[in-house]
Predict the structure.
Amino acid sequence: MRAGAPPSGRIAVMRPPPARPLPSRLPARLLGVLPHLGDLDQPALIFGTCLLRLLLGVRPARYEILTPLSPDVLLTRFPEAIALHPDRGILLFPIPGGSAALHTLLPGRSVLERLTEQDFSLHAIGWDPCQHVLVDPQRGMEDLAAGVLRAPGSAPKRFQEFPLRALRAARLCAQLSLEPTADVLSAMRAAAPRLARAHRSHLRGEIEALLLGPHVRSALELLRRSGLEASLVPGVADDAHRVVERLPAEAGIRMAGWLRGTRAQRILRHMGQPNARIERVEALLLRHPIDTQGGDSGRLGRIARLPHGLREDLFTLRAAEIEARAEGSSARSALKHFREHVEARERDAQEARRRLSLALDGVAVMEQLGTGSGPRVGAALRYLARKVTENPTCNEPAKLRALLEAWDGED
């Protein structure tokens, strides 16, 4: 086993290697300037997260270019460039429909040396679209094909420099179905206590991407194994990873499934979540589980009056929990019956509202039927309400009287 190989308990299944990117995928403006971003000894390379997306057939939001030219030379050659992070030698170059970040080198450094400083081997791949050459000093393509997440050099050192890389590792595993090497997992454990002090906006972006990843269950299990979960979201239920994987890929409902039983509001605020999402998650958790808090008439009415989307999320969340806990057919049947009662209450409320808007009231119906108040008047009003629902244009006194006369004659 080579250094940094995956733990022996994991079956290393080789996957088809990612497709090599094609220059035709790049914006024409970027292709036009790339030859002028390198020098005689070193070409400019597309690298990092944007190259990973290109390798996977996804258009990146922003392009990242590694260039051997100095910021002064770049600003002279491209006056439209903007010094984004002057202390780190990063310039922003506008292109139609987006932008490119130009990463310059420190004096005396080479492109290959800069690639080896990336957080993970899959981000340490460079691509020269002018020569159609992939530069892969850390065997990132090999790791991608094998489903391995590996850090170049010393993983503990990489994570000590930037503890958020521990959470990024879990996010990449969620998105790409990767397994961290033993040293990456160890470095994640070491970084866990310091991760809670990361900037809120950084936490928010990584966690949202993790929860929406196609392999969210394995990523949440990794958060638990590595100690990140206990540091970021203490009190998470044991079945959280099984519940979340059964939920739709929407941030609000997956966060609610993950944070059941925790101090969700405090956790979400620490993550920098927007107020609207915090309120929605709180509303879900306040009423969850929807079917085990009694089904009295008053509660059925309150649930029936909830906004449709919130009510649907409550049923979806509970259904996922039933399956994750293997509660069986009795729990599924109980939830189904509870839902039917809520929907019946909603229909009754809708019908009552329609009756209130009828052009004929109960007194007029009693006069035409020649009867006093009673079940027959209620049946007549329900009949007229259904007719108005089917055809709102008939909600006029004369038309309703004609309908009522026909209905009375049928009896």
In short: The beta strands are 45-47, 63-67, 82-85, 90-95, 98-104, 126-128, 133-135, 148-149, 179-180.
